[in-house]
Amino acid sequence: MYRNLFRSLLLVAACVLVVGCSGNKGEVSVSGHLTRGGKPCEGVAVNFVPDDMMSQAYIGGTRADGGFDMVSMKGTKGVLPGVYSVQIAIPLDAPGGALVNQKMQGRDSVWRVSVTDKGFADLQLDMDKEKLE
């Protein structure tokens, strides 16, 4: 199970390195909070993977308060507007962690987000819910 998760993360990183080597203009700020059972999750990877796989993916890591900010693989802040699959990966030793529902991993993640030119000031991700609100 973990082997597949890490293979997926490596595939995303490889695709981003091949496709996303130039600077992107038009990126908008996307930040939010990740919780489980009403408690913040720290040390969790949040990934935005585009539908077309020809666009750049974005990553974020949660802080102690569950907050995260999305950045490109090159480290630039923000996300290009578009539709993304939201995927999470939690280390076993992360506070608030434990196993992740398969429906929140990989390209078939049930979490989808449409980023507009306004971005998101506080996207709420709750691992107890299968739909983003």
Verbal overview:
By secondary structure, the protein is an alpha+beta fold. It has a single domain (2-126), classed as Carboxypeptidase-like, regulatory domain (Immunoglobulin-like), CATH 2.60.40.1120. It is built from one helix and nine strands, in the order H-E-E-E-E-E-E-E-E-E. The chain has a five-stranded antiparallel β-sheet with strand order 6-4-3-7-8, with no helix packed on it. A hairpin with a 7-residue loop joins strand 3 and strand 4. The longest helix has 18 residues, at 2-19. The chain is globular. Mean pLDDT is 75; it is low at 1-23.
Keywords:
alpha+beta, Immunoglobulin-like, five-stranded antiparallel β-sheet, four-stranded mixed β-sheet, 1 helix, 9 strands
Oligomerization: single chain
Q: Percent of residues in beta strands?
A: 25-35%
SSE pattern: HEEEEEEEEE
The CATH architecture classification is Sandwich
User: Looking at the structure, what is the overall shape?
Assistant: globular
CATH topology: Immunoglobulin-like
Helix content: 10-25%
Q: What is the total tally of β strands?
A: 9
Query: Can you count the helices?
Result: 1
Largest sheet: 5 strands, antiparallel
Mean pLDDT: 75
Text of the CATH class: Mainly Beta
Radius of gyration: 14 Å
Cα distance spanning the termini? 28 Å
